[in-house]
Amino acid sequence: MTDPEQRAELVDLTSCDREPIHILGAVQPFGFLIAVSSDWIVVRASANAAAWLGHGDGDLLGLPLSEILDVEAIHLIRGHLQALRGPDAIDRIFGTVLQAGGAAFDLALHISGGSIVIEAERSVSEHLSAGNLVRSMVGRLQQTTGFDPFCREAVRQMRALTGFDRVMVYRFDPDGSGVVIAESARSSLEPYLGLHYPASDIPKQARALYERNWLRIIADVDAEPVPVLPPRDPEGRPLDLSMSSLRTVSPIHLEYLRNMGVAASLSVSILRGGKLWGLFACHHTEPRHISLERRTGAELFGQMFSLILESREREAETAYEASSRALHDRLMGALASGGTSLENITGFLDDIAAIVTCDGIGVWVNGEVTLRGATPTAEEFTGLVRFLNRTATSRAFATHEIGAVYPPAADYTERAAGLLAVPISRAPRDFLVFFRREIARTVTWAGNPEKPATLGPNGLRLTPRKSFEAWTEVVRGQSTPWSAADLRIAEALRITLLEVILRLTDSAEKERKTAQERQELLIAELNHRVRNILNLIRGIVAQSRSRTDSIEDFAGVIGDRIQALARAHDQITTTNWGPGSLRDLITLEAGAYLGERADRLNLDGVDVLLEPQAFSTLALVIHELMTNSAKYGALSVESGRVDVTWRRDASECLVIHWREDDGPPVKPPTRRGFGTTLIERSIPYELEGEAEISYELTGVRGRFAVPARYVRPAPVAPPIPTHRARERAAKPDAALLTGSVLVVEDNMIIALEAEELLGTLGAKAVDMAASVHDALRQIEAGRPSFALLDVNLGSETSLPVARRLSALGVPFAFATGYGESFRIPPELGAVPLMKKPYTADTLRQALAVGRA
Q1: Contact of 245 with 312, CB cutoff 8 Å
Q2: What is the rounded average pLDDT for all residues in the chain?
Q3: Which residues make Cβ contacts (< 8 Å) with residue 851, sequence separation at least 6?
Q4: Cβ 366 vs Cβ 345: under 8 Å
Q5: HEC secondary structure over 337-392
Q6: Is residue 34 part of a domain?
Q7: pTM exceeding 0.85
Q8: CB-CB neighbours of 823 under 10 Å
Q9: How high is the pLDDT of residue 661?
Q10: Is the same domain home to 142 and 117?
Q11: Which of 62, 217, 409, 447 has the CB geometry, 3.0–4.6 Å to 402, for a possible disulfide?
């Protein structure tokens, strides 16, 4: 304790020369906030917060920090404060005892101006591992493909984590308005999916705060807020609570929520590139508070969702830009090779239009107009160019509503509603302009967005809307907006045209010379390959000429062998003369030559890639083997089959075995034709490999070895569905469920698994509850058609829920990890009991028992 004078000096903040100190009461009804300075603390709290600290109602105390908080708590808090980085950094500590022998609190720490802000709320024992939980949630999120399934899975996971009645992904449009693009809600609630909300519903200052503070909770919209004491420091400045999680919110926003019928809400920011992209908006129809640790999990999931969203959008943008860059580079090469005058651009408009997604394109060069696709007329385009020159911009200019910036354009929005203009010369500028057509669309608003200002309890200002009935309007005169990627591509095109083409630099001349040398090299390589192919064909013709009995046979043999080479060449050239797949080679040859009999060819081996030389050689060998088998061997009769297997041996050589069975009896050939010579000698001669062929009575046997230098691993292909899997896909399970199903389960992961299994059995909607209270509330809101109850819900059992369902006549089943030790109360009758873990088959059997 300190002496009275020193304490008095600290208490009298108006005359205190120390750093300002604030104490808050319970800003929201579940916690309190302390702002401290150095080693001293001044407490002036509400009765609620003072009682939690162990002092009388509203006591005004000036004490050393060590006399208010336990020394271990101070040590822990200081350690975490040391780790804070950045102006908006927040750290959290869970289960901390603030006073010896007292209750445990969860703490949130941050720096506000010159004060250290400590927010505390009672710890809730949930045995929750936020990190493991979010890791599992993110794993499910990453398994989705496509934007809409990605968002739908995110709201489903967030709702399971938080337990709120409704969770939405709310995306902001460029004008500040927003739209609900994904939703998971209790089945008895009216859906909000697809509704638009005006920008005034979430003002700019609120959106700016969401970029700094990821999470905000309102546990009870009717809770009485507690004021900051003292309201200002000696310099007259209030305490900045922007990063506080316990701060109350605007009464206008609370009134807005009440008008929507929302009693509690939770918001988690979704950022892209540090800017607010949208929100996870969670609503509940009765007051709801979740622990700081669970809120931390929700915040972490929101951050991971933001990162994955940004990554996926960047991947799509990167692919789009890469495709445009390839077209751009080819265009520049063509322009450079044909001369670098600006007029040459008009001859490449179709190619330029492919660089940026558009419906039409126009170019203005030296007063001349050239147009392609959906565009204004030449006269309209001339007026548009005059307007663009008045904008005095030296960079690409884009708008998705030309009529809003250039009113005469409203007359031709059906042809051109949006433009992206690229200046390609100095003033007076020449322009390359991309156009997009009008996209007329119907927008459904949650209430009329043009609500006038009215006199309300907050004065003459916009008061919260009371009506959220769907209100539609047709938006015209606008095109699809130009993306940031479109602008980057246009800017790259502008720079290239100015620097490479218009300035006639020496680098353009050098590029033309390099391109010419590259072309000559390609011509020489092509000439070399054509000569080799011609020599090979000449050899095939010469060898086959004396081995056939008629002109028709000769033509057929030659045609088949050349066709085999052509198929092999096609497979190689699709990869730019790269390696080809062995499995594809055999499959293609079988399909091309055998037709419907190709299914009697069985392949067994991990696919490999063959270098072009080996691929062409093996193509001839496989062709001859397939031809002989179809004419004389196993594939010539309906009962015959051919097994082709391959493996890599110890030296990484590829060893291929050919085996024919169930065909006609085999006799060794009486003469050796060119086909036999190809089979036996091509691989040893061309590849320095091995080839063995034997003619056993039961069928031809062959062994071929290709050296390792011609073989490389093939990319892993997705597994081919088995016959049973194909049957299941063709004949899905009959729908055993209808309507909504209630899952009562306190383990979120198990609840999500059950939701997926019930969906496969026909459930139209699945509601989840983690407690008896929540389950009974949902049953009263809307009676389910079936329920799946976990016996043990932590500190309670689901038997009260079972009794209520039984009274209502709703069928249900129990799930338990206790095995046979659980006994169903006799008054419930014959209720199916499943042991965990359960499967779709287990659920199907339980449904059959329940209906019997």
Answers
A1: no
A2: 77
A3: 811
A4: no
A5: HCCCCHHHHHHHHHHHHCCCCCCEEEEEECCEEEEEECCCCHHHHHHHHHHHHHCC
A6: yes
A7: no
A8: 8
A9: 92
A10: no
A11: 409
